[in-house]
Design a protein that fits this description.
about 30% strand, alpha+beta
């Protein structure tokens, strides 16, 4: 799959839950979620709306202040990386160490 990935995240305390949004060539979209499911949407807009409804924000749109509001430093996190979705699944939830 050559479609670029758009990473989204939601936070609960020091836990970050990731979601990957891809827009397909035909204009449909799919979201790979933290449970390892690939959810299909009829458009990028509907996929984005579903992520926003679930209180996710786009990673690329975060600045330092946004990250701090969510409980982490932007330099602490990066979207997960793996060659295959099977390898990606266990990386879709990140628990950050406690702050001192």
């Amino acid at each position: 799959m050559n479609e670029p990935a758009h990473w989204w995240l939601a936070t609960l305390g020091r836990t970050i839950v990731w979601a990957r949004l891809r827009v397909r060539e035909a204009g449909t979209a799919e979201v790979f979620d933290s449970d390892g499911n690939t959810l299909a949407y009829d458009s990028e807009d509907s996929a984005r709306a579903a992520l926003l409804d679930a209180e996710f924000v786009e990673y690329d749109g975060l600045d330092r202040e946004d990250a701090i509001e969510r409980g982490f430093d932007i330099d602490e996190v990066a979207p997960p990386r793996a060659e295959h979705d099977e390898q990606l699944r266990p990386l879709m939830v990140t628990v950050l160490p406690p702050r001192h």
